[in-house]
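Protocol step 4 of 5: obtain the predicted structure for the target chain.
Materials: sequence only (see below). No template structures provided, no constraints applied. The aim of this step is simply to have a reference model before the mutagenesis design in step 5. Sequence pasted as it appears in the construct record:
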Amino acid sequence: MKKSAANANHSNLSRRKLLMHSVPPIAASLGVALLNPMTAAAQTNATSAEKLAGARVFNVHDFGATGDGVTLDTMAVQAAIDACFKDKGGTVLIPAGTFMVGTIELKSNVTLRLAAQGRLLGSEKPEHYKAGNGIPPGNGNIVMISAANAENVTIEGAGTIDGNGAKFFTGRGDMTGPGQNSAEGYFQRPHLMVFYKCTNLTVRNVFLTASAYHCTRILECNRVFLDGVRIYNRSNLNNDGFHLNSSQYVHIINCDVVCQDDACALFGSNKFVTVTNCTFSTRWSVFRFGGGEAENITINNCVIYDTYGCPIKMRCGARSRFENITFANLVMKNVTGPITIGLDSTRRNNTNSTASPPVKGIVRNIAFNGIRATVVAEGRQHPDLPWPQKFRPGETRHCIVVNGVGDEIIENVTFQDIHVMYEGGGTVSEAAAEVPQIAGEYFEIGTPPAYGLYARNVRGITLNNVRFEVAKPDLRPALVFDNVSDATVSGLSACGTATAKSLLRFKNTHDVLMTATRVMTPAASLLDLVGPINSGITIDGGDISKAAKPLTLSDGGLAKAVRIRT
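Step 4 output (structure tokens):
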């Protein structure tokens, strides 16, 4: 007991000594406040403004905005943005109400936050809009909201940005499609948002709707985050959803896009792009690639529905390169297309014989994994589009197309774990059709001579666990290879038609290994070998018992080019 008491006294003494030794530095640190309280208060007041710099909230009402949906609030909203920018950034608040605006410009370090009942409404008067400050003119630069050469720009909140696009409808688009004259295009109408050469751009949780032109144009930006964005854009022609051009480190997640034109266009040299957990529906394409050097892109875990212009459309021309692009875990419901890849370096280039030949485009290392698709024979009218849709004959009964033109070769394309249900109905004349030497819009080649997959000028194509079915008989082959080499087809299951010539057709095709092939319904022949320029074709194993015969020879086809082992 005495020892314990001694220890306690020693402990208390030690704490007292420690406190005594601590007093001088504590007093020194508080000396100014203890000796001169007025000086300390002055210092606190002097720094309070600095402590809030870059973190203040600027309510647009405080700058004269009315939010009544009638008064033009452009100047008030812009004044709030400018004040926020001058204060080293912060938040511009759009509270509950409808704030009608023309062109406004976001700036560095500014967050535009829309309250749940807050709405920015585009004016219906063209004179309230202008070209965005610093926005280049390509595809028009008239805009509602823009930012150029800015960093740390954010648009967020559960509110709405409404472009009032129906007020600009004339029935005329920008005329940039095949066979159209862009000089006659309608460009003097505002895009909803355009961002040019911005870094650390974030758009999240907002509802974007009714643009008069494209919804969201992202041009040459770096580090872009689009998260939880909802787009409903079916009020005018050329109503794109996301339109990316030559941007890097772009991440699109958890978004829902319903639009009239391209839902997620990737033009130019987009690199290091991911798209995941999104849904898309459009009259035209979802993932549309055109020009530039598109590489290192992954698209996965997405649902595409009611899309009647080819969900995945890749068109590569001269001086362009598409490489290392993967599509995985996609569901497609009621689509046309559904996939087309085209390589044509001669298209839309100078045909002057004295000019240097164009540098050929490159398409290689493209993969499709885990796709479930229901493909309709013809496009359908979206009930919420207020004008009738027109469908070209070449949009009818399309299939997966991998199409190189002339002497250009597409390399290393993989289809794995693919299940497609086609509507069917292909005819004898469609089965015999020659595909023209073009690779532009998917419909320009006409109805393909295959119902499942048509491949021309491809080296290194792999099909693994691919299943093609038809809801009604189709007189076209399920698979056509034309000038294909180094192909592996493993686990192909396809529906035949007893009155069709064959289930498969190969022309000018070399070094093909087919294993575990399954003919699901009666077919007249497994393979039609066309022409004498075929070699090294092996069909090994599987169940082809529903084919009346294994081989048909056409136009001088040679049986020695094929080895069949069952």
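Step 4 remarks: Residues 2-50 form one domain. The CA atoms of residues 139 and 187 lie 7 Å apart.
Proceed to step 5.
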